[in-house]
Amino acid sequence: MIAGDVATPRQNNLLHYRRMADGHPYYQFGLELKPSWTERTVLEMMVERCGVDPDPAHLYGDDTIDPDITIDTLEAMGDRIGLAARRRESVVLATGHPSTMGPLYQDVARALAAAGCRLLTPAAGWTYEIETGYGGADLRRIVYAEPGVAMLEDTHGRTHHTHDSQPMEAMLRALTDSASTGSPEAKPDIWPDLAIADHGWAGAAGQAGIDTVGFADCNDPALFAGAAEGKIDVAVPLDDGVAPHHYAPLTAYILARAGLRPGG
User: Fold this and answer.
1) Which of 113, 145, 180, 246 lies 20 to 30 A from 100 at CA?
2) Average pLDDT, whole number, for the chain?
3) What kind and span of H or E run contains 91?
4) What SS3 class is residue 130?
5) Mean pLDDT, rounded, for 187-192
6) Rounded to an integer, what distance in angstroms lies between the CA atom of residue 74 and that of residue 235?
7) Residue 10 Cα distances to 58, 69, 237, angstroms
8) More confident residue, 118 or 189
9) How far is CA 128 from the centre of its chain?
10) pLDDT above 80 (res 251)
11) Cα separation of 123 and 162, whole Å?
12) For position 196, what pLDDT does the model report?
């Protein structure tokens, strides 16, 4: 269910490709992408980098993700995570899919912490307002799942899915505001060497020039476009909405490639 024939509707994919090409901010994930993208070139890029059905006449039904591309990019992700572990880098982890992919991020975070990496947790408790249906509004708050995975929750303590880039942007501002560099052009004292993320969390990190490896579904073209433009280091295509336990073999594969053991 993670790759191959996936449950993501083709019509949803094509809608997102069109909106990304049109420059809709919600579908750009915080990336400043080139204005030359068209619906056709986005589809061609997604065929190459994700493995969706190349037939432009395929308008409805399910779509595909090429498992070979998933494996190749997982290996690239594992290599970069392994480098971070060997260097004991500062790492930020964040997910817009806490209910499905949260445990994957937590397992990677534990392994990196055990290897001596510093897990950054800036802007904990930062809130912003989102629009809800029928003209309503709600608050979202940055929280960190143990041992340091950023996600959003509402005022009732429920975690939420998000595409937004504002939370990662707030995290990076918090790091910048705490800097003692004395120069607005200088990098803060504490700054991520690596971001492991998805959706707008990954897009904003990549846009800020941070090495970024991320996961993206076949209806999330912006991260793949960011990889094509050199702003995202690795974009792993997968269905990001399956039950958490299905990602356990994938998590083990990443950690083995990185030379890390689960839980350290």
Assistant:
1) 113
2) 95
3) strand 90-94
4) strand
5) 84
6) 9
7) 7, 19, 15
8) 118
9) 20
10) yes
11) 17
12) 99
Structure tokens at 230: 């050199």
Residue 180 is predicted with a pLDDT of: 59
Average pLDDT of the residues in 116-127: 98
User: Would residue 4 be called left, alpha or beta, if left means φ above 0 and alpha means ψ between -120 and 50 degrees?
Assistant: left
Q: How many CA atoms lie within 13 A of 155 on its CB side?
A: 6
Full-prediction pTM beyond 0.85? Answer: yes
Q: What pLDDT is stored for residue 182 in this prediction?
A: 52
- CA-angle at 56, arms to 60 and 227, nearest 5°: 100
d(C-alpha 22, C-alpha 37), whole Å: 8
Q: Tell me the domains of the chain and their CATH numbers.
A: 67-258 (3.40.50)
Residue 80 vs residues 83, 126, 146, 194: alpha-carbon distances, Å: 5, 29, 22, 9
Q: Give the residue carrying structure tokens 């992408």.
A: 33
Residue 81 has a pLDDT of: 98
- Return all residues near 223 (Cβ < 8 A) that are at least 6 apart: 29, 31, 198, 199, 202, 203, 206, 214, 216, 232, 235
Nearest alpha-carbon partner for 8 in 154, 91, 16, 23: 16
128: which DSSP letter?
E
